[in-house]
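Hey team,

Filing this mostly as a record. A colleague (T.K.) asked me to run one chain through the structure pipeline before their review meeting, and I want the input and output archived in the tracker in case anyone asks later how it was produced. No errors, nothing strange. Just documentation.

Input sequence:
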Amino acid sequence: MVLKIKKLKNSAKLPFCATCGSAGYDLFACIGEEIRIMPGESVPIPTGIAAELENADGDHALMIFARSSLACKHGIAPANCVGVVDTDYRGEIVVFLHNHSSSAYTVRPNDRIAQLIVMPVCKPEIVQSDSLSDTDRGTGGFGSTAR
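Output structure:
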């Protein structure tokens, strides 16, 4: 499998793994000037790149996750928690960052804003059914096992 990256803007940076043990490829803000994200606000941050996961055949997808340092230290994370880039999408990868904190946060050009991870996708056949198998839990404990 090959992850092809197309630079849509000259100033775009290619994703890369910071260490040999990194699971995610860092994504960078491809912006010409600083963008301020106010508390409770979500702002689109372009990366300046498009991607193609060659030979994936729909059995993998690109997932966009928060960077631990941004989320834990500053409350900055993707607005949709985990972004999904389908293998047939060829447009620019844009990360909508949400500010969960009570302080404004500034994104600067070329800041690392998220991480891109290639993940397998399981697509089972969907079959309508009038019944489901019984379990000890059944329909109880929605949101918690209540134990």
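Quick notes for T.K.: The chain has one domain: 2-120. The helical segments are 68-74.
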